[in-house]
Amino acid sequence: MTAVSASRTEGLDLAARADRVREAAYRMRHHMLDMGEVQGQGYVGQALGVADMLAVTYVDQLRLKPEDPHWEQRDRFLLSTGHYAIALYAALAEAGIVPVDELDTYGSDGSRLPMSGMASYTPGMEISGGSLGHGLTVAVGMALGLRLRSSSSRVFNFLSDGELDEGSTWEAAMGAKHHGLGGLTAMVDMNALQADGRTESVLSIEPAEEKWAACGWFTQRVDGNDVEALLAAFDAAAEQAEPHGTPSVILCDTKIGRGVPLLETREKAHFMRIDEHEWQQCRDQLTAGFEGASA
Amino acid sequence: MSTPTKKRLTTSAMIASFADPGQPTSSAPFGHALAALAEQDQRIVGLTADLGKYTDMHVFAEAHPDRFFQMGMAEQLLFGAAAGMAEVGLVPFASTYSVFAARRAYDFLCLDIAEPNLNVNIIGGLPGLTTGYGPSHQATEDIAIFRGMPNLTIVDPCDSVDIEQAVPQLAAADGPTYLRLLRGKVPTVLDEYDYEFRLGKASVLRGGNDVVFVSSGLMTMRALQAAQDLAEHGVDVSVVHSPTIKPFDAETVLRETRGDRLVVTLENHTVVGGLFETLAAEMAKVGEQQRVVPIALPDRFLDAGALPTLHERYGLARGSIVSKVLAELA
């Protein structure tokens, strides 16, 4: 196991980095389906949608020591959407922080991997999410504190587009700009769906780029399932990571169920129920799609 | 010659002090204590949400500008950011008014700070009835709200002595704390007693054979004054000061309340969910069946107005306490 992961700095070319990320995302999607099958349901659709975002983050961007999740110089990754834990567990397994075998315990009594992510349970989990709109406020404090301590560690906050409804997100957005937190990157899953329906019908958040830009952030919007585009956006955000720089946001348009056609087209997608016989079908479709694309 | 103008009534409701005329006071004891502590402890940081000048945080900000963070009028950010700072090893003191901490940012205090048991110190100005500005600013129910929060230590200091001594102990305590801040010119009272603030402990300030006062916050000052007045009526009053509401020092307080003396609680908080109910619950747990007379704010949204008038109206004034006790003993 490498002591410090972050292939961005390893001198690989973009194509090689992208291949590495795609392979990781494929394995992570497999893990997500396996974990979903244990419970029979869950936020599997969203997890599949953000697999590429998390693969870029964990395989290419974050500095961390898998064998020492509390390494002081690590970059921080905050999952404010605690219900996306199934996605993060797959990433933590891919990064070597959580053993792959342990994923079988997902959501079970006594497991370190509860259905909603909690810091006290899981190595590599920085905060307990779940109540939405918290992550970015904590991220602002971490970035301020790390700068005060002369640390170059970066702070990433993963948000959902639904969290843009929360006023606290915008308090934090203004605070991060005011304090010049260049080391802070927000990554937003723009899957356009929330609990009560499509985001545009629940509370309109568009034009989202203009809102972040008006708050003074370095704003990018990309196809969140296009690995090359994600790598370019994360690299551009890294350029801002100076002690007194501009905070960055990457708005990532993702497709729920991405990689598994059966789930991409499912009507009821927020909290997905998948029949027993369908799980293998999902894995087969995932593998066929990945091998088809690589061929 | 101009017509004599009618004298206008004034209240200065926001800046009103509950100090008595001529009483010794100390200026901004919290701000000075925090600034002094920060000289020795580099981990100390101060944050506020557009209320630095009104929570005495400005004293710290001037002494340690590099460790002071203005969060703007954004209480959720204030406490979320304080949690983030504690996560990376700092010891934050985050100040705003008690109403905004308790009512507006509860979820952030609860989940970001208390659940991970971080060393964040919440400094709440204008606790209870310490402003005549009305219910938007009167945190009459802050203790009731916060007592239900696991891990949180709640401190209701009496005076400048309590505040000065509490600050380093709050910083040294591992988990989160909530300080009901008395700000500005704060009375100095407890220096006349053989007293030391100890986090989590109650103290017997004076003994007496007829009545036991159990008090916290500024009401301990009033309890001591009322005890003096009651002595002139031949009533001998003991005063037990319990500045830590949670964890409550039941051992000391129950030892004092046991027996046949009249027990009276005094608090600058609604009668619901504060010191009175804390003591009553501890008594019930061990099967004590005494009657306890509460002196507290009513279970109502309070009037706006001048502070001395309001303290009279709601029974927190020295004279009101004396009358109530004499009536109970009659």
TrEMBL record, chain A:
One of its GO terms (molecular function) is transketolase activity. Gene3D superfamilies: 3.40.50.970. Its cofactor is thiamine diphosphate. The keyword Transferase applies. Residues 26-286 form the Transketolase N-terminal domain. Its EC number is 2.2.1.1. Belongs to the transketolase family. Pfam families: Transketolase_N. Keywords: Thiamine pyrophosphate, Transferase. This is Transketolase. InterPro entries: THDP-binding, Transketolase_N.
Automatic annotation (TrEMBL), chain B:
The keyword Transferase applies. Its cofactor is thiamine diphosphate. Keywords: Thiamine pyrophosphate, Transferase. Transmembrane segments: none annotated. GO terms for molecular function: magnesium ion binding; transketolase activity. It holds the Pfam family Transketolase_C. It is an enzyme of class 2 (transferase). The keyword Transferase applies. Its EC number is 2.2.1.1. Residues 24-188 form the Transketolase-like pyrimidine-binding domain. Belongs to the transketolase family. This is Transketolase. It comes from Saccharopolyspora gloriosae.
